[in-house]
Structures are given as structure tokens and as C-alpha cells.
Automatic annotation (TrEMBL):
Top-level taxon: Eukaryota
InterPro entries from the UniProt entry: Cystatin_dom, Cystatin_sf
Residue stretches making up the Cystatin domain: 37-111
GO molecular function, one term: cysteine-type endopeptidase inhibitor activity
PANTHER family on file: CYSTEINE PROTEINASE INHIBITOR 5 (PTHR47364)
Secretion signal span: 1-22
SUPFAM superfamilies given in the database record: Cystatin/monellin (SSF54403)
Designated name of the protein: Cystatin domain-containing protein
Length: 119
């Protein structure tokens, strides 16, 4: 990491803490789960990524359909707990729900923490 990255990180943290406190009235503060907007492109992208990441480990791939619901919480970045509808390419069945935990830590690649089938 270059020195200016550390500066940016420090700056972001210093800015984020008061910002988060100031907007506590709208429930946007660290340590609280907030519902996601399932149409938000940023959220949809996380859902798609979770399915692609999961597909790296399986033979019969899943095909992303949409984000059904989800919540986020601030933990060294943003953790997305999403319910994603996906079809199994090897089956003619309608989409089924999968739970995906995607962690978008500051300045780190996305991490898929959990992925399992369930409603
Ligand atoms: C959800 O996100 C979509 C796409 O960005 C936007 O058009 C819509 O207004 C948002 N809905 C709410 C309730 O914020
Ligand atoms: C897709 O369906 C096949 C056949 O039932 C199953 O073996 C496979 O595990 C499924 N794939 C995923 C990713 O769940």
C-alpha cells in the first residue's frame, strides 16, 4: 500500500465515524442491520458476484435471477446478508432462494462468507 492509501483510509475512518453518528436518526449507524434496496445496482452486483463465486466450486452451476431481500451491517466495510433467487442450470425447476453472505471490506477483494440454500 502506498502512503496516500493509508491517508485516505485514515481520512475515511475519521469522516465516517462522525457521519455515522450524525445520521443515527435514520438508522444508519455501525452495528445495526439495515434492509437493502433489492433494485440498487450495488446490491444486485453483490448478489450476482456471490453466485459466480459459488459456481467456481460446483459442477452444476446456478444462474442468478434477482436479489429477493437482504440486510447490511457495517463491519470493517459493509457486510451484505442477501437472499438471492437462482436457478440450477441442470434442472428445469423455477428459481430457489439461496442465502449469501458477502463481505466488502475496505480496500480488499470481496469475500463470500456463506452460501446455502434456504428460504
Ligand atoms: C431502489 O433502487 C432503484 C435503483 O437504483 C431506485 O430506482 C429506487 O428508487 C430505489 N428505491 C428506494 C425505495 O430507494
Ligand atoms: C443442481 O442440481 C443437481 C441435480 O439435482 C445437483 O446435483 C447440484 O448439486 C445442483 N447444483 C447446485 C449448485 O446446487
Amino acid at each position: 500500500m502506498y502512503p496516500h492509501c493509508f491517508l485516505t483510509l485514515t481520512l475515511m475512518i475519521t469522516l465516517l465515524i462522525p457521519l455515522a453518528t450524525a445520521s443515527a436518526t435514520t438508522n444508519r449507524y455501525p452495528g445495526a442491520w439495515m434492509p437493502v434496496n433489492t433494485s440498487d445496482p450495488v446490491v444486485v452486483e453483490k448478489g450476482k458476484w456471490a453466485v459466480l463465486e459459488y459456481n467456481k466450486k460446483v459442477t452444476n452451476k446456478l444462474v442468478f435471477q434477482r436479489v429477493v431481500s437482504g440486510e447490511t451491517i457495517y463491519i470493517s466495510g459493509i457486510f451484505y446478508g442477501l437472499v438471492v433467487a437462482a436457478t440450477n442450470e441442470s434442472l428445469p425447476n423455477p428459481p430457489e432462494n439461496y442465502h449469501a453472505g458477502v463481505w466488502a471490506k475496505f480496500f480488499e477483494p470481496l469475500k463470500l462468507r456463506t452460501f446455502y440454500k434456504g428460504n
